[in-house]
């Protein structure tokens, strides 16, 4: 019996061992087979930290490849808490450089269990100051910062990004998915004592670059002239749009007010708004172009038919409507030229509301254009069944309907190009690492027939030659257009205001082979407010510079010598008010003018010129029209361009110091006509 006891004890031990081993193996099997994913994830969470590496955003270019928005690598400061023994000291030292409270930095370091970002995208000077401290546990990681080298230029189109490089407005927002690219990853691995011993990175995929349809020079011309117009008229806001009527591409879109996207956060939301696509307004008399087009296309009338304008008043469904002037008998051509409300209403009544509504829709009014910009406003065009009996009278003269600048310029471009409505576009091309993809817009469609478009173009030319658009007449080019003076709704009364107007002018040139369509819209100008008087001269200045830059040949005679050209100036607005000038500014201006005269006469100036106000006229001899236009735009001079070929004569002569905004007249001819520099006059 005693001999069996050792065996029994060994048996018991062996059984217990087997059971214990079975439990252990079972538990291990359970953990390996059923809990593997859970514990593997926990281990990774404890041992690894993954940081996202922001991808480099694609560059935004103008149509000629000039950079409008770029991303530059900059250093961000990180801290590794496992390598920092005195977080308080490190925080105090960094606080002085980063301008961040030391307590905040210390808390961030102490609470972190892995490398933590302390500050993003630092300047090289700040990085150097931190580097000179030689702080253990503080290191730098490259991240991209969005920069806009042209500052305010095209800001409302480009938009801006937030601190994480995410597009917030404009093209940056609407094409953020393509421009932003795919982020990379940086993974760091720690041992049991939380010492980081390994780091791996997967590179970020850069975003696609975008080529816009706008031209930087044309954009500058538009913004410069819009700023001048705002200063002259004291308007609250405004927009100028330049479009290629044959493709729908936008060549320039100027907004006022504007902002610097490098510091977008310091501007209110209203300033960052792109009014060209989001600001809907009643178009006023510019809408009469659509009224006339519909009536002529449907055989309701013709340019020579005589209309009784009833000395400026008409009753429509019991509503009395007054004209801006008491016209009697006018031809249909003169109804448009003189912008008669009564004449336009009588023609629209004969067309009828249903047909009129269909015509309006064919020109894209009341619909989204599909422009590649965010926040587009579709405007207002009520379904015809919701029109009141008097609505047709209102719509005929551009009331009870609202449009955006993009909508109305695209409608007028359809008349300019022969009747084809091209949806407006601002993206020309999207470039990836592997291909350049042309950006196709929406399909075009016929809005009217070619014969009707030609007839309306002729009528719109009469507007400029004989009607309300005389101030928009171009030197050296035929032009067609239409003015608009729209009363704004007074929010307090809900009625049309007697003081606030939207003054606009839209036109194209040359008349029978249009190269550009241009819209000028000024919101609430002070004093004179007629579209032809206020916006017409702006159209003239923009169109002449744009056509010269594009090398569009003259189609009417132009002055042939410098002396004649000196007397050509934009026609001033009747009743225009000068902007207020404080005495200090006035004295500075007068001193600059006096210095200019002394410089030209050889006397030494008594006060130094300010670089911001004065430029030196360059020698333009032998340059092409386009090169001269670009030079003038860059220097802030207004070019007066005569003839074709290369520059053979200029006034003022090269070397003259003039104020920005001065007119520089240049005559072009053949190379052999170059006038020696000694033969030039002083230009005064």
Q: Which terms summarize this structure?
A:
single chain; 684 residues; alpha+beta; Penicillin-binding protein 2a (Domain 2); Beta-lactamase; 4 domains; seven-stranded mixed beta sheet; five-stranded antiparallel beta sheet; 22 helices; 22% strand; elongated
Topology of this structure?
Blueprint: H1 4-34, H2 36-47, E1 48-53, E2 60-61, E3 67-79, H3 87-98, H4 102-111, E4 116-122, H5 124-133, E5 138-147, H6 155-158, H7 170-174, H8 176-180, E6 184-190, E7 196-202, E8 209-212, H9 216-233, E9 237-243, E10 250-256, H10 275-278, H11 288-297, E11 306-308, E12 313-316, E13 319-322, E14 329-331, H12 332-337, H13 341-351, H14 353-362, H15 391-396, H16 405-416, E15 420-421, E16 427-431, E17 436-438, E18 445-446, H17 450-466, E19 480-489, E20 496-509, E21 516-523, H18 531-534, H19 536-549, H20 562-566, H21 583-601, E22 614-616, H22 625-635, E23 638-642, E24 646-651, E25 657-659, E26 663-669
Parallel strand pairs: 2-8, 23-26
Antiparallel strand pairs: 1-6, 2-3, 3-4, 3-5, 6-7, 8-16, 9-10, 9-21, 11-14, 12-13, 15-18, 16-17, 19-20, 20-21, 22-25, 24-26
What CATH architecture of the largest domain do you see? 3-Layer(aba) Sandwich
- Ends apart, CA distance between termini: 138 Å
User: What percentage of the residues does DSSP assign to strands (E)?
Assistant: 15-25%
CATH superfamily of the largest domain: DD-peptidase/beta-lactamase superfamily
The parts where pLDDT drops under 50 for at least 5 residues are: 562-612, 675-684
Query: Regarding CATH, which class of the largest domain?
Result: Alpha Beta
Helix percent reads: 25-40%
The overall average pLDDT, rounded, is: 83
The whole-angstrom Rg is: 35 Å
Query: What's the number of structural domains?
Result: 4
Number of strands: 26
Looking at the structure, the CATH topology of the largest domain is Beta-lactamase
| Tally of DSSP helical segments | 22
What is the global morphology? elongated
- Structural class label: alpha+beta
Q: Major sheet, described briefly? A: 7 strands, mixed
């Amino acid at each position: 019996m005693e001999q069996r006891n050792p065996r029994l004890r060994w048996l018991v031990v062996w059984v217990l061992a087997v059971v214990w081993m079975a439990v252990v193996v079972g538990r291990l099997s359970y953990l390996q087979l059923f809990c593997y994913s859970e514990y593997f994830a926990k281990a990774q969470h404890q041992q690894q930290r993954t940081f996202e590496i922001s991808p480099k955003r694609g560059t935004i270019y103008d149509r000629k490849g000039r950079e409008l928005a770029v991303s530059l690598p900059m250093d961000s400061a990180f801290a590794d808490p496992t390598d920092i023994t005195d977080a308080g000291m490190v925080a105090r030292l960094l606080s002085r450089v980063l301008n961040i409270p030391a307590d905040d930095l210390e808390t961030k370091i102490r609470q972190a269990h892995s490398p933590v970002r302390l500050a993003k995208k630092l300047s090289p000077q700040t990085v150097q100051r931190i580097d000179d401290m030689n702080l253990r546990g503080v290191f730098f990681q490259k991240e991209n910062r969005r920069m806009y080298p042209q500052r305010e230029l095209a800001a409302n189109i480009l938009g801006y990004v937030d601190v994480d490089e995410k597009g917030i407005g404009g093209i940056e927002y609407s094409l953020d998915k393509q421009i932003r690219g795919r982020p990379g990853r940086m993974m760091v691995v720690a041992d049991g004592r939380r010492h980081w011993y390994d780091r791996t990175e997967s590179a970020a995929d850069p975003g696609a670059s975008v080529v816009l349809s706008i031209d930087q020079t044309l954009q500058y011309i538009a913004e410069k002239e819009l700023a001048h117009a705002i200063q002259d008229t004291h308007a609250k806001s405004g927009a100028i749009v330049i479009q290629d009527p044959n493709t729908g591409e936008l060549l320039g879109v100027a907004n006022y007010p504007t902002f610097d996207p490098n510091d977008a956060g310091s501007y209110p939301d209203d300033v960052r708004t792109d009014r060209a696509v989001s600001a809907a307004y009643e178009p006023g008399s510019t809408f009469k172009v659509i009224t006339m087009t519909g009536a002529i296309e449907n055989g309701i009338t013709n340019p020579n038919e005589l209309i009784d304008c009833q000395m400026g008043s008409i009753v429509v469904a019991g509503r009395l409507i007054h004209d801006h002037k008491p016209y009697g008998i006018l031809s249909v051509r003169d109804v448009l030229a003189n912008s008669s409300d009564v004449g336009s209403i009588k023609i629209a009544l004969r067309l009828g509301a249903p047909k009129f509504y269909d015509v309006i829709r064919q020109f894209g009014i009341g619909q989204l254009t599909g422009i590649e910009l965010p926040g587009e406003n579709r405007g207002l065009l009520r379904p015809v069944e919701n029109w009141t009996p008097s609505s047709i009278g209102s719509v005929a003269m551009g009331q009870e309907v609202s449009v955006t600048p993009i909508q109305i310029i695209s409608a007028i471009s359809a008349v300019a190009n022969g009747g084809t409505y091209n949806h407006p576009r601002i993206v020309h091309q999207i470039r990836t690492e592997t291909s350049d993809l042309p950006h196709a817009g929406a399909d075009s469609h016929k809005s009217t027939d070619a014969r009707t478009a030609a007839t309306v173009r002729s009528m719109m030319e009469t507007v400029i030659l004989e009607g309300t658009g005389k101030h928009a007449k171009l030197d050296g080019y035929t032009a067609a257009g239409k003015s608009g003076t729209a009363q704004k709704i007074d929010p307090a009364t809900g009625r049309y205001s007697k003081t606030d107007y939207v003054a606009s002018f839209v036109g194209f040139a040359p008349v029978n082979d249009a190269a550009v369509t241009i819209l000028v819209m000024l919101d609430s100008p002070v004093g004179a407010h007629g579209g032809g008087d206020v916006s017409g001269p702006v159209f003239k200045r923009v169109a002449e510079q744009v056509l010269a830059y594009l090398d569009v040949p003259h189609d009417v005679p132009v002055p042939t010598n410098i002396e004649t050209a000196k007397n050509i100036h934009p026609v001033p607005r009747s009743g225009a008010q000068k902007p207020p000038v404080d005495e200090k500014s006035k004295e500075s201006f007068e001193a600059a003018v006096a210095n200019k005269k002394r410089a030209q006469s050889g006397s030494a100036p008594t006060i130094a010129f300010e670089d911001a106000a004065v430029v030196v006229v360059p020698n333009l001899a032998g340059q092409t029209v386009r090169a001269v236009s670009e030079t003038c735009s860059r220097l802030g001079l207004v070019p007066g361009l005569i003839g074709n070929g290369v520059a053979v004569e200029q006034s003022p002569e090269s070397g003259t110091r003039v104020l920005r905004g001065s007119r520089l007249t240049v005559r072009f001819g053949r190379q052999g006509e170059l006038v020696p520099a000694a033969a030039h006059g002083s230009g005064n």
